[in-house]
Design goal:
Layout: H1 3-6, H2 24-39, H3 41-47, H4 52-72, H5 77-105, H6 112-144
Helix pairs in contact: 2-4, 2-6, 4-5, 5-6
């Protein structure tokens, strides 16, 4: 049996992106920041996590960079790419903070599985942001040709 008959959902086109809110990377990073604010922020404050403010600011910075990148890329593609690079760096920083939290508090966190889930989410979305940057580069090259 040919492959295309075994997997009828092999390709589904994505909905067109009209605003930054349509970007999957924005949605995923916003979702992660909400989870952090709702489920970790207060617990980390009680435990005395020394980097709590930087951690929560970093969680919000990533979707902010993505939103800004989407806006400026039309006028200045280079600036948009720099903002995407900053959002990828932010994802890496969040993984570092989360690993620090896991190492310091591990079993004292009721949501130990949440920390692992967030590490995976930030790692995965970082790759997706990289692919978004490459697609923007391709679009820019096609536009100039």
């Amino acid at each position: 049996m040919p492959y295309y008959q075994r997997n009828p959902r092999q390709f589904t086109p994505r909905a067109p992106v009209k605003t930054f809110r349509d970007l999957e990377v924005y949605q995923k990073t916003m979702e992660a920041s909400v989870l952090i604010m709702k489920n970790l922020k207060a617990k980390l404050a009680r435990l005395g996590f020394p980097f709590a403010e930087q951690f929560t600011n970093g969680a919000m910075a990533i979707p902010l960079f993505i939103a800004e990148a989407h806006s400026v890329r039309f006028a200045d593609n280079h600036s948009g790419k720099i903002l995407l690079e900053r959002s990828m760096a932010g994802c890496n920083k969040m993984v570092v903070y989360l690993e620090q939290i896991r190492g310091m508090y591990g079993s004292r966190l009721a949501d130990e599985g949440l920390v692992e889930d967030l590490i995976k989410r930030y790692s995965d979305v970082r790759t997706k942001i990289f692919h978004l940057e490459k697609s923007w580069e391709k679009f820019q090259r096609e536009k100039q040709a």
